[in-house]
Amino acid sequence: MSDTKIYLPESDIPRHWYNVIPDMPTPPQPYLGPDGKPITGAAMEAIFPPAIIEQETSSERWIPIPEPVREALTLWRPSPLIRARRLEQALNTPAKIYFKYEGVSPAGSHKPNSAVAQAYYNAEAGIKRLTTETGAGQWGSSLALAGQMFGLDVRIYMVRISYEQKPYRRSMMETWGGEVIPSPSNHTQAGRDALAQDPDSNGSLGMAISEAVEEAASRGDTNYALGSVLNHVLLHQTVIGLEAKRQMEIAGDYPDVVFAPCGGGSNVGGIMFPFLADKAAGRDLRLVAVEPASCPTLTRGHFAYDYGDSVGLTPMMKMYTLGHDFMPPGIHAGGLRYHGDSALVSQLYHDGVLEARSVHQTATFQAGVLFARTQGIIPAPESAHAIRAAVDEAVQAREEGRERTILFTLSGHGHFDMSAYDRYFAGELEDMDYPTEALETAKANLPKVEG
Ligand SMILES: *Cc1c(COP(=O)(O)O)cnc(C)c1O
After folding, report:
1. Do 432 and 331 meet the contact criterion of CB atoms below 8 Å apart?
2. For a substitution probing ligand 1, which of 138, 229, 288 has the most ligand atoms within 8 Å of its CB?
3. What is the mean pLDDT of residues 69-75?
4. pLDDT tier at 2 (50, 70, 90 boundaries)?
5. Which of 382, 383, 388, 416 to mutate for ligand 1's pocket (most ligand atoms within 8 Å of CB)?
6. CB 46 within 8 A of CB 314
7. Atom 4 in ligand 1: which residue has the minimum CA distance?
């Protein structure tokens, strides 16, 4: 066995991010303000630095990565591309399975790729503090790390149920100097209103976003940072796909199909957009986002304008959505429990360039355990969604007696998710489909806009 791991030298960390917008068949719809009109860059200046606002709407295909950001990325990049030979053997499949492993970052997922860029641009603009939200804690820990690297204070509104259930993610954020506040909290109007309604509220990602945005908008020294969904976040994540393309080339292979778990769409965009440029140029390949059946944003949501948070403080985005008042069922892949999705991923899915499928919770853990027992790495429950899809594809290749090259992102490791594995082993995890009535209610509550 040779060439199981393909490492690149540091000099191969990309020097540019790839912006997919010029290669989209339909450009993304503009973000809308409360008056239903497209928002201007100036309206975003209360919470974002100029460089980020520019990236959000740029039509440049290649955007240079500033040297201090590239230097920060060298702490863990380039990440390895690994051929999952032991998984292939266990499945007795003729398919070749490759994965790009993002769990090598200090926070254990792909999220620091954007966190360091966002911290850099904010520090450069003279900002002293960042606010953000976190669900399971992966984004919060990534931003705490990045804030520390670029000299910014970071306040993290953490969904209360996760704050209580995932004490070690909180310790991690505090170790990197972050301040962690359970949400809903008394620090903001949005939080106080939520607590007045329900003092025992578990919180939600949408609520934590409302709190973080409200605070950032009300203070001149403070900006807001988001870990997924927005165009600039997906842009920063394209280092994943750019490296992976180079690594596949070294392996002498090219994927027939690429899978990634999909929450807000940042690791989907990260690995898939650089390949999408080839697809746009006529190459035959499938790009498939994988989401939970209990939070089926792309596969069952509405393609409509909606808010990014629960209170309606963010601009409206044209995206697939389960409704901004979505209350997530308690599944364990916390990072995939968001009501909306990236506008770029949504538009590309709507246009048939990207595909999507949903998988059930127990099937993802089953695939995650198989992966841990063959390849050794214990995957994050989010990442196990992509593993499930890759395993199904490899089994299909065996049944059809056909070769196939499969690539997926292993977006993170699961070392902070072991209680979820415990519950899986104890047979306590349930498979839930998102109720159709809830989809109908969500539709009725969407903001009314033309378009
Ligand atoms: C946050 C997270 C995801 C989902 O977020 P995307 O923006 O859709 O990538 C997936 N995997 C891991 C490990 C995460 O931390």
Report:
1. yes
2. 138
3. 98
4. low
5. 382
6. no
7. 263
Q: List Cα–Cα distances, 260 to 18, 111, 279, 291, 385, in angstroms.
A: 18, 14, 17, 9, 8
Could you tell me the distance, in angstroms and rounded to a whole number, from the CA of residue 410 to the centre of ligand 1?
Answer: 10
27 vs 326 pLDDT, higher one: 27
Per CATH, domain 4-10+67-108+233-444 is 3.10.180.10: no
pLDDT at 161: 87
Ligand 1 centre to CA of 51 (Å) is: 24
The two three-digit tokens of residue 98, written as one number? 């490759």
pLDDT at 329: 65
CA of 356 to the centre of ligand 1 (A): 16
Between vectors from CA 93 to CA 88 and to CA 99, what angle results, nearest 5°?
Answer: 40
pLDDT value of position 374: 98
Residues with CB under 6 A from ligand 1: 109, 111, 138, 228, 261-268, 335-336, 380, 382-383, 411-412
Q: Which amino acid is at 315?
A: P
Minimum CA distance residue for ligand 1 atom 1: 335
Q: What is the mean pLDDT of residues 228-237?
A: 97
Tell me the two tokens of residue 426: 């104890």
Of all protein residues, the one whose alpha carbon is nearest to atom 3 of ligand 1 is 335
Residue matched to tokens 């399975």:
97
Residue 305 pairs in a beta bridge with 318
Q: Each residue of 389-447: pLDDT tens digit?
A: 999 999 999 999 999 999 999 999 999 999 999 999 999 998 988 888 888 888 888 99
| pTM recorded for the entire structure | 0.97
Q: And the tokens for 405?
A: 């090259």
Domains of the chain by residue range: 4-10+67-108+233-444
Question: CB–CB of 153/124 below 8 Å?
Answer: no
Mean pLDDT of 44-68: 96
- Ligand 1, atom 2, residue with closest C-alpha: 335
Ligand 1 atom 5: residue of nearest CA: 263
pLDDT digits 0-9 by tens, 271-305: 999 999 899 889 999 999 999 999 999 999 999 99
Question: 261 CA to middle of ligand 1, Å?
Answer: 7
Q: Tell me the CA–centroid distance for residue 382 and ligand 1, in Å.
A: 6
Given this model, what pLDDT does residue 1 score?
46
